[in-house]
Amino acid sequence: MTEDHITRTRFTVQQYEKMIATGVLTKDDRVELIDGVILAMDTPTPRHSAVVNRLHDQLYQLNLASVLVRAHGAIRLDDYSEPQPDISIVRWQSDYYASGFPEPKDTLLVVEVTEFALSFYRDVKLPLYARTGILEVWIVSLLQQTVDVYRAPSEAGYGETRQLRCGDKLNALYLSDLSLMVESVLG
């Protein structure tokens, strides 16, 4: 069979969640649904885990009003995508989203931390976040020692992009109390 004749199945969020509910996929599988494709997530290195945990603690300690700070929580972007960003800040919901994962309208900030897969985040996940209306995304690159900030989402991508380095201050557009130094994020 030639590649031209291969049929690919694009999974919906409902099909993906059913695979999880029935045990076809488990937490040990470390996967996420991106544009209908079930993709394996990188196994986090100790440094990656430390940065995510440190940032989660810093954000939690800021005691941001009317929001929830989530680590590795799924966001339902559309009918075909349910990524699990390293950190997300979502609008407060009293049931902590037990009734359903947050959607783009609920999401104020997504943070992705990467040590070795920067192009995947920039080329695959970032356009998806922009297309579905995620207001702000930070991509923390451990190798480059940078934080790329993306704002003003549209179908074509993000209209505002900044790259910050140690010595620069990170401020979230929709969270006025959130202000961190880049070096405190990078460790």
From TrEMBL:
SUPFAM superfamilies: Restriction endonuclease-like. The lineage of its organism: Bacteria, Bacillati, Chloroflexota, Ardenticatenia, Candidatus Promineifilales. Residues 14-181 form the Putative restriction endonuclease domain. This is Putative restriction endonuclease domain-containing protein. Pfam families: Uma2. It comes from Candidatus Promineifilum breve. InterPro entries: Nuclease_put_TT1808 (IPR012296), Restrct_endonuc-II-like (IPR011335), Uma2 (IPR008538). CDD domains: DUF820-like.
